[in-house]
Task: structure prediction
Amino acid sequence: MNESFKFLYETNDGVILCAKLVPNSSYSKIVDFNEEYVRIKISSPPIENRANKELISFCSDFFDVNKSKIQIVSGEKSKLKKIHIRDEKIDVLSQKLLFVLDSIKKTSKE
Result:
């Protein structure tokens, strides 16, 4: 892959995704990114862990990975989160992100 993301890095048993969660949004979607994190809007409120649960479901659907392989490893009560995706390779997840991030770049340049 020709592009490296600091917000996505490999561990010995999977990949960590650094994300900034925007709860209580009108839709669930990756909307922005910078060197540190991807910004993900989630429609659920940050009450009773609902936004975290929806974030895990969103990542599961987006990356086509079973929910049981996804865990928030830091930032459970913060907007900044580290999400561990177990037993996945960085190249596979990077390719899935690349299409969305490229479209965000193009939109922001217009």
Notes: Helices lie at 50-63, 90-109.
